[in-house]
Amino acid sequence: MCAIVGVINSNEASKTAYYGLFSMQHRGQESSGISVSYNHHITTHKAQGLVTDVFSREKIASLKGNIAIGHNRYSTAGNSSKNDAQPVFANYDLGEISIVHNGNLINKNSVRQELIKEGAIFQSNMDTENILHLIARSKKETLKERIVDALNDIVGAYCLLIMGRSKIFAIRDKYGIRPLSIGRLKDAGYIIASETCAFDLVGAEFIRDVKPGEMIIFEEGKTEYTSIQLFEDIDPRICAFEYVYFARPDSTVEGKNVYNVRKELGRVLAKKSKFEADLVIPVPDSGVPAALGYSQESGIPFEMAIVRNHYVGRTFIEPTQEMRNLKVKLKLNPMEELLKDKRIVVIDDSIVRGTTSKKIIELLKHAGAKEIHIKIAAPEIKFPDLYGIDTPTTKELISANMSKDEVCKYIGADSLEFLEIDELVNAMGSERKYSLVSFDGNYFVK
Amino acid sequence: MCAIVGVINSNEASKTAYYGLFSMQHRGQESSGISVSYNHHITTHKAQGLVTDVFSREKIASLKGNIAIGHNRYSTAGNSSKNDAQPVFANYDLGEISIVHNGNLINKNSVRQELIKEGAIFQSNMDTENILHLIARSKKETLKERIVDALNDIVGAYCLLIMGRSKIFAIRDKYGIRPLSIGRLKDAGYIIASETCAFDLVGAEFIRDVKPGEMIIFEEGKTEYTSIQLFEDIDPRICAFEYVYFARPDSTVEGKNVYNVRKELGRVLAKKSKFEADLVIPVPDSGVPAALGYSQESGIPFEMAIVRNHYVGRTFIEPTQEMRNLKVKLKLNPMEELLKDKRIVVIDDSIVRGTTSKKIIELLKHAGAKEIHIKIAAPEIKFPDLYGIDTPTTKELISANMSKDEVCKYIGADSLEFLEIDELVNAMGSERKYSLVSFDGNYFVK
Amino acid sequence: MCAIVGVINSNEASKTAYYGLFSMQHRGQESSGISVSYNHHITTHKAQGLVTDVFSREKIASLKGNIAIGHNRYSTAGNSSKNDAQPVFANYDLGEISIVHNGNLINKNSVRQELIKEGAIFQSNMDTENILHLIARSKKETLKERIVDALNDIVGAYCLLIMGRSKIFAIRDKYGIRPLSIGRLKDAGYIIASETCAFDLVGAEFIRDVKPGEMIIFEEGKTEYTSIQLFEDIDPRICAFEYVYFARPDSTVEGKNVYNVRKELGRVLAKKSKFEADLVIPVPDSGVPAALGYSQESGIPFEMAIVRNHYVGRTFIEPTQEMRNLKVKLKLNPMEELLKDKRIVVIDDSIVRGTTSKKIIELLKHAGAKEIHIKIAAPEIKFPDLYGIDTPTTKELISANMSKDEVCKYIGADSLEFLEIDELVNAMGSERKYSLVSFDGNYFVK
Amino acid sequence: MCAIVGVINSNEASKTAYYGLFSMQHRGQESSGISVSYNHHITTHKAQGLVTDVFSREKIASLKGNIAIGHNRYSTAGNSSKNDAQPVFANYDLGEISIVHNGNLINKNSVRQELIKEGAIFQSNMDTENILHLIARSKKETLKERIVDALNDIVGAYCLLIMGRSKIFAIRDKYGIRPLSIGRLKDAGYIIASETCAFDLVGAEFIRDVKPGEMIIFEEGKTEYTSIQLFEDIDPRICAFEYVYFARPDSTVEGKNVYNVRKELGRVLAKKSKFEADLVIPVPDSGVPAALGYSQESGIPFEMAIVRNHYVGRTFIEPTQEMRNLKVKLKLNPMEELLKDKRIVVIDDSIVRGTTSKKIIELLKHAGAKEIHIKIAAPEIKFPDLYGIDTPTTKELISANMSKDEVCKYIGADSLEFLEIDELVNAMGSERKYSLVSFDGNYFVK
Question: Boundaries of each Glutamine amidotransferase type-2 domain copy (chains A, B, C, D) (predicted)?
Fold first, then answer.
């Protein structure tokens, strides 16, 4: 996961990119960066931290130019480093270039080894550097041709924004796994963003999504953009996780509003089995729409019985002797007044390791709930995702190692229910295909 | 508004106070501070910023001691300054002392003038300094007697925690306007806090509220506390605004759960008038419980159709040409997919100046809502509060200057409804009295 | 030690004060602060750190007004705290006031106890707060009279700058222990500073010193100042340490250039005893002028054989196994090429604890010096200073506990020589008296 | 200019490198960085600022390993950027590598263009990246062979430290333009540094200089090092500027102590022409030894009549109306008491643009000097240096555009004298050759 944004033909490009990144902060909190092209030179500012930490008003004002790209990086534990912030800038054969990337290249290691064997040097751990090298090494004459050349060598999930001195190339892989949409600014400029919620904040109008396998070229000073279909064998499969928990509920992903899809997932859960309970409660915030859908379908009253504290930020976590489950409690507090002696249905978006669910159930029991029935608005996660989502290894995925009943017992619930894969697909719309690797293990990218 | 916390007989007093303040961050984001008493000396750390900005793990570890008090300061525009952080510390006749204070002393100017005339010096704008001076100038022999002396000279809304070398005095004014509750820590220590949500996070058990006009004395090493009734003529009137929007929904204020009171306010709104609409939506987060109550009572479906971005933090606000209503949009984004061509009921907690409501309605119209009916889960605010809430002057209060219909027209709604004062009182419980000054102009404190 | 500065009738008062403090950074590196009076209100900014750390261009620009006072605080180990930065500001009976203070009040504890008994509260450890309280408690009608009143109650070494809304009062104690001089700015304004080197930097012209026991009143908009002699029984005794090592060599203290006095001290050392040696070297920087004087008088060649590193700043000091004497070596590096097999005379300004001298001698021996003769351009320090200099207790003063020969042996020198007190006095000028407490134990202040 | 340091076989390698960089802070204040190799991985920390700003105790403690290299970067106006800090790290064919570099590659642009044509990408403006690319692209099997390969393609002045997982390669170009010396640590480790003053601070013993055209290989765990002579056609020419003003006076450059050479330069100046004057004064700090030599030779008394303020740091420079020559005055203050009505000889190390000399002379005149005779302890600078020194273009070099008499008139001196080139060479030792490009325009590097 990550967020990318591009702005062109706006005399406040860096500011528009800034607010675009701000509205997509949920897609990445580790680092943030913006490149602008001005006076034939590209300037980049990037650093670790939230968008509002990395960029002051003065910094944005200093990033002049009509063309900008930006990036929010997701915090991936372990192999990330201070250098792994984007955009990635380079001087190369055709001048200056800057790239932002959302996704994951599955052949990154082999490409990197190949490049390294040919004498390339790498200054970070990011697969984005691969693309830069491939473009720089292509023998083609124009940047456009070189990008085409480079993309022939990479395999995986990617949305790319590539900025030269006066152009932005917006590219989506042939499966369209990650989303990328185009909006029009009021002053004839364009904004390209991972999620449409960015358009709402900056006052842009949604035009259309970049299509799977498509490259769109925006040029400074031109009101029209050009489209090139890069691949013939496209096989569109938007990632189901965008609907399940990545995207903001107010975003429209590939034509479907996320909030409505989540509500529908809740309705499907309610239809699966008749069930007697006193309350339906969501694990906030991502479980809210599904819990509403469940409540509307089942008639069981909906309550926000778990209160979420949104100030978490950089709190250190070091419990005193008497504090239990501190990490979960810093965020979530169930209310005894609502839960005591009640039979409750709890709606969550997924179970990954099972540890958080276990702790939430402990807190709900402590608050006096009589019965706790967990309903997950997604299927069991049995396989690691390789297409840009930070899921743990198979060993750590609880559903890869336990049956539904064992998981139920482990987390301490009275019952546990998941969606079936086809139920998920039906709720999202069975007229098209999806990336469902975490659920079905079908690693379709070749 | 502000948050105060005290901890005694805990060998991790500063850490417990830290998490207590963290859970009450919503009551004040301007500055934060903690004093500890250790080895017969009081040490204080305070600074501007959120709790998590002001205190690092190392800073908390350096604040040793079994006894601590802490404070979050509410951001009051205009007359606040860098020096106006609490606790306020002083050396005085009986040794060292530190004080935190939630509320507002209505005779602060006259007391301050009196003290200044007698030769006192003031190093901040806080009325808390008055109390320190009065204690220091009292001729009584013990701190307890001096506090009693000092309190005889001050009039207003106050919850105080006063820390000497080895004691904490917890005091509430005779009207009990601001809340203050006592919890028991697992290791026989106590925590005193403005809101009970602090107890949940630190694993403490609610014991009871400090009573109006009561002073409770906690002593280091003693498992029992002592209570003294300071005033005979008590007239308990908890502030209605705690229920309306100050307190966290998971707090219990004077025996009543805030979430449940807010839901009841929504039910009452629904009962007031039959109404045809397609959706009930809250202005998040504070409008959520009332909207749920309204929906349950009226049968009109509830939707979270306005999405709130919780990352707002320190974003600078400087719109581009094409951005309108940026300040509101940074926080709130209405979803066209849910609102288009719908008749909607919007539940909010209050209308103060009317400017925010006006902008929200613009955004809702832009999202295609056909009819917009605003229901406020509180009466019209016609008078400035003087008891610790930062309401603007009469001139700026829209309902002090316009009729309900004029306000409706000004904000651009299709209809507008408030609660009557007695409806509010009934929902909170008519068996007791409330501070309702903003609504009825009854400035009862003498 | 400390530095104070005042500026009046300059439309860039804070900037002039800033550069004044910058030029006097050697007198205090712990904290820095400036108060300005503008629009009938006093604003203060102060923080820990060097002048250039505490004040940015923007901060200075924000401190508007034609009148300013400033302070650099000396780093005194142990009992200093974050709160002990100056200026000290207060609201009091006559309005707003801000004070800076260089010196030490010897009756500070008794005055503080007296004030506390009367109900005063203290928010720092600084004796400057005493003066504020005394002024606030005086029953006189004007600030001028109140200051006179207050000064009657304090005893000690002090130079004060007291700023009201539109005036600066510059005051020196009746012994004139600490220096304070007046300079005229080109635009008819004035600058008052601890040292005349401040005048050189800001382009001011030296007018005269504030006299012992004198109060000078500068008023906004007035080109003339008023002088009041506060005490009849003046007994002028400028502190000898200003000449020995406090003041910058380019300052003129009470009419005598510091560099020239130090050179003369070196000459006197040379005249004391004929001596055969190959080189005279200073411990830089303060020993340089005396070493030059010694060289000129004795004919023994002067060399800068110890190189000083001026970047020391905030280096942490944690030697590796192979590093010895790191703390001294970070600053001072003797050159083997110059010292090997040489008989050297080393000129230093004083010996306090003896530990630094011991380490320097180790380094000189390691560099191959054949004979090391230490000459101190001051008498033996046998008594703690109480008049504003941070000397340690008698127990730690090596010359209070050892004879000259014992000290010589302890530090490992081949010979050791001090000045006699009368030699010091003659070099500074025997026509007047000096504060010599560290040398003669005559605590003359009453 | 820059400083480089390498440490191997020390269990406190990063700390030793830190203190080495600290002692060479004068060679570069813009940025600082250290790489360590630990557990088969290289970690780098670098940032803008002084050594003591960039590295805290904690940061150094976190840089574990027995092998480290470090760098201080000189502030070169204009084309430097935030990214231009060293060491430069990369992953490449043989694993991980980190490089530090002092000097300037004169064919850097052609090499860079060549590399770029072949598809290389550059992420900074530093020529150090060239070397990394050349090593990465070499087809040889070992790092040693690849370095040899790479060095065949570069031309210029360079001292390099190249760190692989377990080795440090120390390399000096065949002219030996920049210095590089080897020291032995007490625990059988080695330190390699630009200047020998680094050895003094860390307690290392000087072994020998790296020879021109030599590569020395240090290996983890081995007490012996290996030497390889890379070039046959060596032509040793240490840069004369190291003696003139770069190096610290306590360093020994190519066997000669810098202080002594500078003193000799002063003596030569004195011998050139008999001269009547009252005082010889240096422009501190670099002019001090030459002024001492001049004084000893001529018999004219030496005085430190210009006082230098060492706190300059990051002061902003924005004079008030009455401040003139602020930039020079922040550093230098001439003393009227010493200069008034005197005929003075001023010794400085060089005249580059002439603007600083002009301002110093204004200040000396303002201080009352009767005659001002400028003696420069170096020849006229008529040509830009290309071998690692930041001299301006020919257009800005005053001596490239004016005769000595014109310069004298421009700066306002009563007389002006430079050294002849052969006088400089004789003082440094005529038995060897020097890089003298700034003086003679002989760009010998091919």
Answer: 2-221
Are the C-beta atoms of residues B10 and B37 closer than 8 Å to each other?
Answer: no
Note whether D39 and D428 are within 8 A (CB): no
Give the three-state DSSP class for B424.
Answer: helix
What are phi and psi for residue D44, nearest 5 degrees? -125, 135
Whether residue C87 is preceded by a cis peptide bond, meaning omega within 30 degrees of 0, is: yes
Which three-class secondary structure state does DSSP give residue C211?
A: coil
Q: Which of A364, A349, A353, A352 is nearest to A412 (CA)?
A: A364
- The residue range of the domain holding C171 is 2-235
- At D388 the three-state DSSP class reads coil
**Shared domain check, A209 and A160:** yes
Q: CB–CB of C154/C110 below 8 Å?
A: no
Q: Which of C175, C200, C235 lies at the terminal end of a domain, its last residue? A: C235
The active-site residue, picked from B2, B197, B239, B408, is B2
B239 SS3 class: strand
Q: Which of C22, C201, C309 to mutate to test the interface with D (most CBs of D within 10 A)?
A: C309
- Residue ranges in B395-436 assigned as alpha helix (H): 398-401, 404-411, 421-428
Running along chain D, 446 residues long, what does each successive block of 10 average in pLDDT? 96 96 94 95 93 93 96 70 86 96 93 95 92 96 96 95 97 96 92 97 96 97 95 94 95 97 98 93 96 97 95 79 86 96 97 96 97 98 87 92 98 98 97 96 92
Residues 6+ apart with CB under 8 A from B141: none
Does residue B436 belong to any structural domain of this protein? no
CA distance B410 to chain A (A): 24
Last residue of a domain, one of A195, A220, A235: A235
For residues B419 and B360, state if they share a domain: yes
Counted domains in chain B: 2
DSSP per-residue string spanning D101-125: EEEEETTHHHHHHHHHHTT--BSSS
Binding residues of B for Mg(2+): 286, 348-349
- Give the CA diameter of chain C: 73
B288, B224: one domain: no
Is B375 within the bounds of a domain?
Answer: yes
- For the question of an ipTM over 0.90, the answer is yes
- In B261-279, which positions are buried (b, 16+ CB within 10 angstroms) versus exposed (e)? bbbbbbbbbbeeeebebbb
CATH for A435: 3.40.50.2020
Same-domain pairing of A199 and A299: no
The whole-angstrom separation of Cα B295 and Cα B4 is 35
Token pair recorded at residue A205: 């109008």
Pair (D301, D417) in one structural domain: yes
Nearest by Cα to A120 from D134, D101, D89: D134
Name the interface residues of C facing B (CB cutoff 8 Å): 88-93, 116-123, 132-133, 136-138
CB hemisphere CA count around B191 (13 angstroms):
35
Its pTM stands at 0.91
- With respect to residue A243, please indicate whether it lies within any of the assigned structural domains: no
- Give me the CATH number covering residue D66: 3.60.20.10
CA distance D79 to chain C (A): 25
Same domain, D277 and D371: yes
Q: Residue D364 and residue C13: Cα distance in Å, rounded?
A: 27
Rounded Cα–Cα distance for residues D309 and D286 (Å): 14
Residue at C241 is within a domain: no
Length of chain B: 446
What is the C-alpha to C-alpha distance for residues C30 and C314, in angstroms, rounded to an integer? 12
pLDDT in tens, B339-382: 999 999 999 999 999 999 999 999 999 999 999 999 999 999 99
Instruction: Retrieve residue A126's tokens.
Output: 């990011």
Whole-number CA gyration radius for chain B = 23
One domain, residues B200 and B91: yes
**Per-residue DSSP letters for A252-291?**
EETTEEHHHHHHHHHHHHHHHS----SEEEE-TTTTHHHH
Interface present between B and C (3 or more CB pairs within 8 Å): yes
